[in-house]
Amino acid sequence: MKQGADRIQVAEVCRRAGISQATYLNWKKKRGGLRPIRMNRLKQVEDDSTLRTLVADLSLDKEMLRDVIRQKRNESRIRPGLKSTMDERSGACHGP
User: Fold this and answer.
1) Count of domains observed in the chain
2) pTM (two decimals)
3) What number is the average pLDDT over the span 26-35?
4) Which of 11, 24, 27, 60 is most buried per CB count within 10 Å?
């Protein structure tokens, strides 16, 4: 963006940086009037936000997995009783 402020054509700046003009204009709109210190702080805040989102997603995944484990444990406690009842039924149907 510093090159853009030095009166070089936007198209030339974008070509040199390998970005589109739309990307350049978005960056300029977002960060145009910021000094380097403020730009660094903005990036740090954006990174913190990204990390918070990742932590929240992982926490949710962890809780979902815990629920699945709890359900599996509950099913395994119920199944042995059901299995013996089913065995009795099948034995009664087939006879001795």
Assistant:
1) 2
2) 0.38
3) 73
4) 24
